[in-house]
Amino acid sequence: LEMVMEKKRIFSIELAAGGTLAGLSAISAGAPFVESPIAAFIGAIGGVLHVTCGKAIVKVIDDTSSAIAIHFIAGTWGLIATGFFVNPYYYREYFIPHLSSEVLEVRTEFCRGLFYGGLAQPVAQFVFVIFVIGVTLPYMLSVIVFFNEVVQLRVSPESEIDGLDRHYFGGLHESIPPRLNMSLNAVTWPSFQDVSQVSDAQKKCGETSSVIFECKKLTKKVDQGEELITREKRLYAKFKYDSGCLIVKPGVQMFRGKKFYVPGM
């Protein structure tokens, strides 16, 4: 799916593994009660939701592992889908060892999917989803807010760029390219300007030392935004020296939601 959406010729191992887990999350609710082709269908839709919703969610929330798409979105789909596809025969076979014949007969009449003539089961599944969200969401939000106030769940942008090995453990991991093992302040930084100040001619030919970030606060004079500019320099350092090699391409580029211009190198 990602190969079609992104027009790539290779697939992502990360998305493939996440899609498999999302499919498992989706079918977990109705696994004993649905037919095998239906189970494959529910799992496949869970994988599709992981890819599509994961790409949308990450633009709003920094969910790097796609946990929301895998567990919440795909799991919710699985709960609702169970209400449509529960087979009364499988339901009966599953509960025969646990219920008396009279109770089982009554429950089988109600516990059948919408496509098997039942209406109570899909309604019950939907109500259950609302109940679970209503119980868990306030609790989890309170836990997140509490721990964020106590220990600060997110590190600073500088820590993200330099790496936690340096900020928290006093060193660099051996897997980090040697080119990153330098003081960021020692790098010769390009001059920062507002992107609107660059003429078309300058964009076309450009100066090799110019990189222009578009940011509302950077429209002011450079000397009025030293802290912000320092942070942008760090972002540029990570972007430029990622994997120890120059990966910036000429032209207008996007990085972390900001647009900047890179002239011909």
UniProtKB/TrEMBL annotation:
Cellular compartment(s): Membrane
Chain ranges of the Ammonium transporter AmtB-like domain: 9-169
Topological relation to the membrane, as annotated: Multi-pass membrane protein
Molecular functions per Gene Ontology: ammonium channel activity
UniProt record, GO biological process: ammonium homeostasis
Keyword Transmembrane applies: yes
A cellular component term, taken from the record's GO annotations: plasma membrane
Residue stretches spanning the membrane: 12-32, 38-58, 70-91, 123-147
Record keywords: Ammonia transport, Membrane, Transmembrane, Transmembrane helix, Transport
Keyword Transmembrane helix set for record: yes
InterPro entries on file: Ammonium/urea_transptr, NH4_transpt_AmtB-like_dom
Pfam families: Ammonium_transp
Protein family per UniProt: Belongs to the ammonia transporter channel (TC 1.A.11.2) family.
PANTHER family found in the cross-reference section: AMMONIUM TRANSPORTER
Name the record gives this protein: Ammonium transporter AmtB-like domain-containing protein
Lineage: Eukaryota, Sar, Stramenopiles, Ochrophyta, Dictyochophyceae
